[in-house]
Fold DNA starvation/stationary phase protection protein.
Amino acid sequence: MSYLNIPDEKLIPVVVELNALLSNYNVYYQKLRSFHWNILGKNFFDLHVQFETMYNDAKLKIDEIAERILTLRHHPVSNFSDYLKISSIKEVSGLITDQEMILELLSDHKKILKQMSKIIEKANAAGDEGTIDLIGAYIRELEKTSWMLNAWSKNTNDQLKRDEVKS
């Protein structure tokens, strides 16, 4: 019995893009674990905790994305070898500097946000409000995390734009 009011042929493009996001998040999750384990230096305490927070968040999103695919009556990709083939995020050594780790994660965020935009586009075309709602919240959260990581990577003498935006 179909509990969705969306024809399957409209959902297939959404599911394809959700599986790509699921693949991205699995590779990203493992990268965060690696960075958490391998961080060294003066920023150890801050970044060790931050990376743990981020991989716990990624773990929840992995489960929610897979469950959304199942809700749409399809099966999520579930083999790591498939994740590596599908993902636009690539593995990297955890034996890099803290600054390189942050830059790597910001690059990953850009790829994940691009993938999320594809999902929103496909879900909108399908009339899939549930997926739009889920991914919209993810975009907001990841943009905020990206802002914070970007701020961390700056020198204290770097400034935001000084001009105020007035209405």
Remarks:
- Helices lie at 8-38, 44-71, 80-86, 98-126, 129-153.
- The chain has a mean pLDDT of 95.
- The domain at 8-153 is CATH 1.20.1260.10 (Ferritin).
